[in-house]
Amino acid sequence: MNEGNIGLTGENLAFIVGCPRSGTTWLQRLLATHPQIKTGQESRVFVYIGSQFRLWRQDLASAGVMGRGGTGLACYLNEEEFLAIQKKYLASILGPMLKELPPGQIFLEKTPEHALFIPEIVRLLPAAKIIHLVRDPRDVVASLLAAARSWGRPWAPRQVKSAVRKWHQHVSAAQTAGELLTPGQFWEIRYEDLYDNPVKWLREAASFLQLPWSDTEIGLAVAANTADELRQGKGTPIPIYGEHGKQPNSVVREPKDFVRQARPGSWREDLTLLERWRLWYALHRIAPAGLRYQKNKPLV
Description:
Layout: E1 13-17, H1 24-32, E2 37-39, H2 45-66, H3 79-98, E3 106-110, H4 118-124, E4 129-134, H5 137-148, H6 160-178, E5 186-190, H7 191-196, H8 198-208, H9 215-224, H10 227-231, H11 267-270, H12 273-286, H13 288-291
Parallel strand pairs: 1-3, 1-4, 2-3, 4-5
Helix pairs in contact: 5-6, 6-12, 8-9
């Protein structure tokens, strides 16, 4: 396999990251309307690979602590060898995503959990771009709790405290990693800004991705991906490939109630008085930056 042909440096890859229930799927569908952007279902590729990197670093750190000269793969491989193996492995995994991608086009990968693995992404794909979508933690918590009561029961937190911790973990990890990257590689956008003026912020997104996109085309993308359209199972399709692609419907079909109110501030209606008090308390103890969350003001 010719690694250069599949963009192993990441120059034709962009990652949307953020806490789950922050609107990342909506942003993905909006951007995937662009004729030069291809996308697909969440791959979680760096949840797999990033975990291996973290085990490698743990093994390196254990050498002095354990007093046995270290354990793990570092007893057999040096850093360069391990990195080369990981790049070869990544090239094989990314092949199906990028093999038919014409020059000048971008594959847009959206996995919220990748917010936790940005250092690993840029280590293996130094030219990849990261888009971090941040949403008001109160709306995210309300949406996570609603998901836990229905379609998201297997993964969504059921308690306010756990939901706040999830928001804080993802947002702080992404912002900490973003501070070490250039503005041309890491871009943060607020859900509330995108909701209030989608044309302006999608124009900014296209500029970040270095793609031309007229306001007329952006307007059509926005009209095709309203909350009402998405609730009806419409919107820009997200293809499914591989083994899951063998199913009758080879595009993503969101479960009932996946798209809820979508309106900023709906947490006031979604949460009970007790849940709102618990939310304030949890934000105060776990994520004080979330208490200061206001449009057009920094989180930290």
